[in-house]
Description:
By secondary structure, the protein is mostly helical. The protein folds into 3 domains: 5-104, Fumarase/aspartase (N-terminal domain) (Fumarase C, Chain B, domain 1); 118-147 and 163-357, Fumarase/aspartase (Central domain) (Fumarase C, Chain A, domain 2), CATH 1.20.200; 360-452, Orthogonal Bundle (Ribonucleotide Reductase Protein R1, domain 1), CATH 1.10.40. Helix content is 63%, strand content 5%. It has 20 helices and 6 strands. It has helices at 14-20, 23-26, 30-46, 52-71, 83-95, 97-100, 108-144, 164-189, 208-214, 224-229, 232-258, 286-309, 323-347, 352-359, 366-375, 380-397, 406-412, 420-423, 426-431, 441-462; strands at residues 149-154, 157-163, 191-192, 219-220, 266-267, 349-350. β1 and β2 (157-163) form a beta hairpin. The mean pLDDT is 96.
Amino acid sequence: MKMWSGRFTKELDSTINDFNSSLSFDHVMYHEDIQGSIAHATMLGKCGIIPQEDTDKIIEGLKGILSDLDSGALQFDFTAEDIHMFVEQVLTERIGDAGKRLHTARSRNDQVALDTKMYLKKQTDLIYDEVHKLLDVIIAKAKENLYSVMPGYTHLQVAQPVTFAHHLMAYAQMFARDLDRLNDCYDRMNYSPLGSCALAGTSYPTDREFVAQQLGFAGVTQNSMDGVSDRDYCVELAAAISLIMTHLSRLSEEVVLWCSSEFKFIELDDAFATGSSIMPQKKNPDITELIRGKTGRVNGDLVTLLTMLKGLPLAYNKDMQEDKEAIFDSIETVKVCLGACTPMLDTMTVKPENMRAAAAKGFINATDCADYLTKKGVPFREAYKLTGQLVRLCIESGLTLETLPLEKYREFSDIFEEDLFTAIDLQTCVDQRKVIGGPAPVAVTAQIAEMEQRIIKLDENHKH
Ligand code: ARG
């Protein structure tokens, strides 16, 4: 019998019962559901809405259910409608009439919003910790590779020399913004909706702030209709996760390239690569491809949430039950991807000699050759054109800017002197780019120091 069976003359059709039930996925929130109910029951007793003896019985009963679910002594009954109904049903079976008083001045509409926010807050913290670990590994690798000159690319064509540290720190910037975004999401979802009840609040003298405080919220939501129908916190977290996945996916794509035989910039540890069932020589970066692939499904989850909400009138509608599978899938996916990516990067072998060899091809220092002329008074456009002609000559004669003899340079312009070869040396090209954010070891060292300070501040905000 359903708890709401009073106005019905028939049992719910069993197929429809299954269709309607969310227990198969919302049971993961049983801790939050029970903690929320304990806080609610405490408030009901404190405000004199139910007798204190009943509050005491309810709390004891709920604690028993929690430990029995934790130990496995109590199993979920998947014919129940949802986690909220299941817990209340078991409570009433166990403690009788007092259990029936728990739902006073509450609705499942504010209850589900409360449980979901509590669950997402906890998950946001776990994701934050995982992103943080990844960031630590990236920074450690950057510190080891301040002098590892490598080609920087645009259009995946060799462009200008950078270092592996500089390249990695670009990802550190992305993941640091992700930490900031997670903190933001957490702060905005940190308001308790409990007490909004079905949609219009209650006439009982409840104390919403007391409940919020007990459950560790910063405050209470300010409109009961919004309190039960807001799912922005799911969308925001899903969006933050989509961006984390996008960053992981871009990094994954680079790892795929870097460990190909054409690049050979890194080698993955055997524990983090896979073989082929037919080609004995293969060592495949499957982890990175899976991360890239799973990014699509996390983006799908975000679109699911936005689409579910877009036409909904206020306040609660059952469509909203669809929020959980989407956001839970995003959460589980990003956690598993971060858990795979971090040790994979931590254990990879970097091959600076191959990076440098790749940087020595492709006229990567052509801009520096043009800058050499500009610094000696030639207007940049003219210097650019002249260098282009030199590159063409090199291509025709199978030489590079480093191996083309000075006499040839001087046929183009007598401004060229012996010091040109220092100016276009790869190390000089990198070392001279000392601008804030540039690849020079001194600039990247400063960038790392700034990042370490920023992370300390992010962690302080994260302590909530
Ligand atoms: N299982 C529901 C959900 O996840 C709980 C709220 C149900 N409220 C209602 N009036 N049917 O959204």
